[in-house]
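Tutorial handout. Part one gives the primary structure; part two gives the three-dimensional structure as tokens.
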Amino acid sequence: QVQLVESGGGLVQAGGTLRLSCAASGSIRSIQSMAWFRQAPEKQRELVASMSTDGSTHYADSVKGRFTISRDNARNTVDLQMNSLKPEDTAVYYCWTFALSSTAYKNYWGQGTQVTVSS
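Part two.
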């Protein structure tokens, strides 16, 4: 199994910054993409940013130019630097990866970390 543990959430004023971190551990044989999703109250979970093993990235239009995803393949970690935060960024942020543990690749999720942006 693969475990994902997030950290770095919290309360910040609009215009502020936060950095989320996620570390994967367990019986990891290979990790493909890593990403951050978020889910606001009464809304569907949405992709915020992702990064593949070759370093290619994808961002939601709503965060382009403000958020930056980075990962350390050697340490199996992925971070999300969030700048110029807006109240609409308030959500629970989840770390995700597609990884090989025993015999098959599976989706793995972290427990989520709350980000609250006050106006």
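Part three, for discussion. The mean pLDDT is 96. The first strand starts at residue 2 and ends at 7.
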